[in-house]
Amino acid sequence: MDIQELQKRLDEMRVRKDEYQINKIRPFGFTIRQTKKGAWWVYYCEHGSIDQLKIFDNESEACDYFYNWILEWIKKSPDMLEDYLEELDKKYGIIRGSKIDSKEEK
Length: 106
Known about the structure:
With 106 residues, the protein is α+β, with helices and mostly antiparallel strands. The chain has one domain. It is built from three helices and four strands; from the N terminus they run H-E-E-E-E-H-H. Strands 1-2-3-4 form a four-stranded mixed beta sheet, with helices on one face. Helix 1 packs parallel to helix 2.
């Protein structure tokens, strides 16, 4: 798998684009990118700190790892999917981008 195929698969699964980055200089969340020297890095980034870094020599291995890593996380955190958020909207009337008022209406 290459980067284009990876992006296509993530789009087909409707993984939220704010959960991952592909080849971005200022990464956050799940990240896959090629370094200037040609290596492929796959890691999680939060508040500028890189965690769980894996380094690959080729694009195919890096993309396969990244894809499987995302699949594992979706099992633990289904809110990574657009469809999950849409179901919450339908079920609870949550509007994306709004805060949920925890106070009960009287």
